[in-house]
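Late entry, evening session. Most of the bench is empty. Finally got around to the prediction I had been postponing all week. Sequence below, unchanged from the version circulated by S.P.
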Amino acid sequence: MLRLEAGVNEDGRRLDRYLKKILPSAPLAFIYRTLRKDVKVNGRHAAQDTLLKDGDVIEIFLAEGQLSEFGGRPRTLHKAKRQFGIVYEDDNVLFVNKPFGLLTHGDEREKKNTLANQVAGYLAEQGTWRPEPGNTFSPASANRLDRNTTGLVAFGKTLPALRDLAAMMRGKADAGEALIEKYYLTIVRGRPPALLTLTGQMIRDRERNVSRVLPVGIIEEDESADAVQIARMEARPIWCGRAYTLVEARLITGRTHQIRAQLAAAGYPVIGDRKYGDARVNEETERRFGLTTQLLHAHRLILREGTGSLAYLSGREFTAEPPERFRLIGEGLGCYTKTK
């Protein structure tokens, strides 16, 4: 028999969906057969569509062998040495500074040493999250950075917080009214004007994992209107050297490779960028600094309007300083100054 207590992450979840989370390997027929006779909520049999509440006690009357077979036992955490820095943490959220070379989530090649697993391990060690069978929630991020992009990643520590954080990240970006403003640091070839406002259409080639930027209103003959997304961003020079500039870019929309593709299309390629950058520039920065990927850092998040469980974060700003490697390259190119 398994005795569990529903928490805030299970509040409002249907009983049948909860049981499917608890026994992820069980066939649906087994789930519903078990619900009819082998599950009680607060000491009573309950219908499959019963909505659980925080504090409800769920008893599952199954043999140990069945529980083990269908996954009704504590999850195994992939142990990974902590590499991230903590920018901010409270009972609901964790904002971290992701290092270079670390995936936010796993892929077909790497499933263990990821930022998500490192965060789960950290929270388990702190006792603020436990991978128990009754806990159907795992901490997850509301935004994602490429392996080679460093900087701020925001995690929800509870399901309500994650939902609110994800909704804030989506916000009203297409209308230019983002609830969370996202700022990135990068170094580009050239000297942009005081403020560069970029609006274009982006077409993504999923097979090649590359995006093209077109002027607004132009659709190529082989592209449908549905394949085109409007992309908006601003870029502000912070420090101009003789040939390179430290730039802070504000994403208004969030498209794949948007900063890199739009800056390149505007004539200011990101250094080290093999997909959209300038081959001569990349050769120089690789020779001088060993840079073989784009230099891009998620620098600041400004929470203009917190919603739901995160309303108390309204007006807060969080900053992650770029790694030393970024600073050294910027100083070597004569275009780095410490930002606020």
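Two things to note before I forget:
The chain is about 20% helix and 25% strand.
Helices lie at 15-22, 28-37, 64-69, 115-126, 159-170, 258-265, 279-289, 324-332.
Will write this up properly tomorrow.
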